[in-house]
Amino acid sequence: MQSYLIHRIEKFLNANGRRLLGWDEILQGGLAPDATVMSWRGEQGGVSAVKAGHQAIMTPGEYCYFDHYQDDPSTEPEAISDYLPLQKVYSYNPVSDSLSVNEKKMILGVQANLWTEYIPTLEHTEYMIYPRLLALAEVAWTAPELKSYPDFHHRALKAIPFLESRGYHAFNLKKEVGGRPVSLVRENHLAVGKKVTYANKYYKGYTAGGDSALVDGWRGNWFYDDHRWQGFIGKDMDVTIDLGSSMPVHSVSADFMQIIGPGVWMPKNVEILISEDGTTFTKLKQIENEVPENYERLLHKTFAWEGNTAGRYIRYVAHLNSKGGFIFTDEIVVK
């Protein structure tokens, strides 16, 4: 039905001197002959369109959705979700290296999107747009090899008072908090690089890199869209780490998040266990969640055990909340 509609409306538009422009869903079922694709669900839609001979505009949510938080969510007005700081916008390259010279010419440019479910005023709209729109403009107009974020950041700082002098309400870049502190430096701990066995597989849309994600030393940023948070949907997170040999263990911890709009909840409770043989486990601690199910803002919480023990296998179980939905964690830290 969708493909039928797209093909039919394109004929009508063409007959009236117009061309069809559509989100990348219009690729489903066969693309209309003269359509241009807006690639918002990542870049693959735009790449596929170009390789099929169609023009495309790159507007992936990860880099171009300005309704996402631009700084530490605890310091910002409520937003829909996700974290898109100025530096990440600036880092975007809309022309994939997988394209040929002629295919690259089919990428018309980039576009920012700002949906306003959580934006009640014009002033708030401007706050979400600037200075991120300046970064995307430079993405569109400057060759990647000529870009320099330190140079751009310096110029953006100067642009803020200029915008304010013209009556615009821009984000105060001077007061930017930045990324979640634990995400900025790789953490070395006993479980890094060790084998992880999953009783329940993680969700295919949020793998964070696969079976090694929870022991790669990298903690997640503010939101689950940064490719470091691993997600489990409708099931418990139940993983066992093989440390390789028996050794002293003094702490085991993992962070979880809650943001109920997209259905991300704290676990009901967490069990942390240890074993010498990987079969018989001793429970070190069970931790009950104390975050209310109706707590709406983004929140991170650490579920941890501390003490003195020894063992080879660490089992970490996060039980699904009564609301269902997603459980997200970024790293199981063993010290």
Sequence-ordered SSE layout with sheet pairings:
Blueprint: H1 2-15, E1 21-23, E2 36-39, H2 44-51, E3 56-58, H3 61-64, H4 86-90, H5 101-104, E4 107-110, H6 122-129, H7 132-141, H8 149-165, E5 195-198, E6 230-233, E7 237-258, E8 269-275, E9 282-288, E10 299-319, E11 326-334
Structural summary, described in words:
With 335 residues, this protein is α/β, with parallel strands linked by helices. It folds into 2 domains: 2-175, Glycosidases (TIM Barrel), CATH 3.20.20.80; 181-334, Jelly Rolls, CATH 2.60.120.260. It is 21% helix and 26% strand. The chain has 8 helices and 11 strands. The longest helix has 17 residues, at 149-165.
Tell me, briefly, the overall form: globular
Main β sheet profile: 7 strands, antiparallel
Rg from Cα: 23 Å
Name the beta content range.
25-35%
Estimate the helix proportion, in percent. 10-25%
- Which CATH class of the largest domain is shown? Alpha Beta
Write down the secondary-structure element order: HEEHEHHHEHHHEEEEEEE
- Overall CATH architecture of the largest domain: Alpha-Beta Barrel
- Number of H- or I-type helical stretches: 8
- Any idea what the CATH superfamily of the largest domain is called? Glycosidases
Low-confidence stretches: none
Q: Please name the CATH topology of the largest domain.
A: TIM Barrel
Structural class: alpha/beta
Number of domains: 2
Distance between the termini: 56 Å
Mean pLDDT comes to 96
Total strands: 11
